[in-house]
Amino acid sequence: MTQQTINLINDYYKAFNSGDMDTFLSLLTDDVIHDINQGKREIGKAAFTQFMACMNHNYKEQLVDMVVMATPDGNRAAAEFVVLGEYIKTDQDLPTAQGQKYRLPAGAFFEIRDNKVARITNYYNLQDWIAQVSE
């Protein structure tokens, strides 16, 4: 089960990096829970789809230096990576976007059900990101 879960998470991030949102979203349960970094919890694939549309509108990101781990039963996983990004459109109350580039260490925790992502919790240092795009 561990390798199956690691493959799922790798496929999830491969789809993200290639911009294949259909595949990316197909790897989620319909009732997926998304805990947004320093934000609220959203539930459901529709909410996640809307979140990703906003992200893809405001940012261009690639995830590199990926390390994926899973529990022996495959029910939980974690990933550590670096976000290489470009801030292309101003997002809500954040600094003004001017095409700033950033490099941000990040991580995510997953709950897996029926070989799909049932919960994802992302973590990164928002203050580090703000400092990078404000320089």
Helix/strand/pairing category: alpha+beta
Strand content: 35-45%
CATH top-level class: Alpha Beta
Largest sheet: 6 strands, mixed
Give the beta-strand count: 6
CATH architectural label: Roll
Q: What's the arrangement of strands in the largest beta sheet?
A: 2-1-6-5-4-3
Please state the oligomeric state of the protein chains shown.
Answer: single chain
Helix content: 25-40%
| Overall mean confidence score, pLDDT | 96
Q: Count the helices. How many?
A: 4
State the domain count: 1
Which residue ranges are poorly predicted, with pLDDT under 50 across at least 5 consecutive positions? none
Rg:
15 Å
Distance between the termini: 45 Å
Shape: globular
Helix/strand order, N-terminal first = HHEEHEEEEH
As for the CATH topology, it is: Nuclear Transport Factor 2, Chain: A
Q: Care to describe what's here?
A:
A hairpin with a 2-residue loop joins strand 5 and strand 6 (116-124). The chain has a single domain (2-134), classed as Nuclear Transport Factor 2, Chain: A. The chain is built from four helices and six strands, in the order H-H-E-E-H-E-E-E-E-H. The model has no long low-confidence stretch (mean pLDDT 96). It is of the alpha+beta class. The radius of gyration is 15 Å and the shape is globular. The chain starts with a helix and ends with a helix. It has a six-stranded mixed beta sheet with strand order 2-1-6-5-4-3.
